[in-house]
């Protein structure tokens, strides 16, 4: 079930604006999912489709979010989408994200391989002009926090206006490597994106849309695609390494503490 998040977003993306408004109205009602209260109106105010999915999954878990979505789709007469969601097959298939899994003996060899990649290390600074209005960047542009408080910032073609995302200032090519600290975080998304990605409206962060990412949601790690691939890790991620070889079309993610993922 954990692989459903991108599919739920695709379902909501296929709703007309009128249907999406109706969908959000039903989300506020109690017992749309038997025995469960609705989502508070204040939480749903001004939310786009991607944040609506996050709210559903956060409150009802993945299986509940699926059942709730099907119930509401039935109420608004979108039986075609009910069938699509009912028949969704979450089995993983080939993905463009290359998640490395070593079979080498000993942590020493793995760490030596990781050290080679650090030869391509780059210094990434986050770009405040791309940051969603709910995000706060540190003064040095090295850290980002989601505050759930929307700030009054000027809009621009660079800024994400619906999904809580931010890009780095630097445009990178060739081979490069960087690390992101995620220790103690309960939800995050890390990866790379094409400079040309769409920043407006609801966005699905999959390779066909120009995003190569992994994330943590509800204690589950996934490589995001359609469908996504669950990552069965031996320990919680504290720091994620990201290596890109542009010429080979390769994006690799590492658990920096163990040199694999």
TrEMBL record:
Residues 1-91 form the Pyrin domain. CDD domains: SPRY_PRY_C-I_1. It comes from the Eukaryota. Residues 104-261 form the B30.2/SPRY domain. This is Zinc-binding protein A33. Pfam families: PRY, PYRIN, SPRY.
